[in-house]
Design a protein that fits this description.
Radius of gyration: 23 Å
Shape: globular
CATH architecture: Sandwich
Strand content: 25-35%
Number of helices: 3
CATH superfamily: Galactose-binding domain-like
Length: about 240
Amino acid sequence: MKQFKFTLAAMSLGTALSMAVSTALAAGVSNGDFAGGLAGWTKAGNVAVDTTSQFGSPPAGFGAQAVLGTADTAGFLFGGSAVAAATLESFVGLGAGALSGMGATVGSGLSTDFTAAAGERLIFSWKFMSNDPPGTPADDTAYVVLDKTTVIKLTSVNSAAFVGGSASPLFDETAYLTFSSAPLTAGSHSVSLGVFDGFDALGASALAVTDVHLAPVPEPASGLMLLLGGSLLLGLAKRRSP
């Protein structure tokens, strides 16, 4: 009976430790599904939350999507106007020319800060919409910036895999796709999502985003708990053996 109690105690300890690690890993992006509107986020330019599928339906299981627009999208949904590339660069924390050097003229951005555990990845779902046809010099672009330093191009008018139509007010769109960052270091981070008009301020493009979250890293933690639990049980068994 005593050996059973020791075993049960060891299992309870392992479970508690595992739950503690899982809880620590679960802390991440606030309001990443935008069910709370833009709470926890800051915006620059033409940004709003779509809860009526005006820009098509978000992925299954989600009822809201943040939509960022360029110069000519103000009449569709938004309450703001696109801002100059220099303003976007300042908003993100980038140096002058970081976006304008990619052809940005005007656009919109959405940012938040979050805390990650070592090895976690930032994940979000996104789609790109545009009135500009592929092959145009106006290469409107969607992007993400991590930690105010790394600009990652999601897609653009001339590189997007358009589906040949759109449920939004724009002419064409991509399917909802998934972005996954490289493993993050432990600590504070920031993410800024954006879209800009390329080389002119004509036409309209938009970026829809939802399900912004951190992918946990349960495998190492689970392995550690199993190792600790096994070691504890082995030690108890040796102590109880004659």
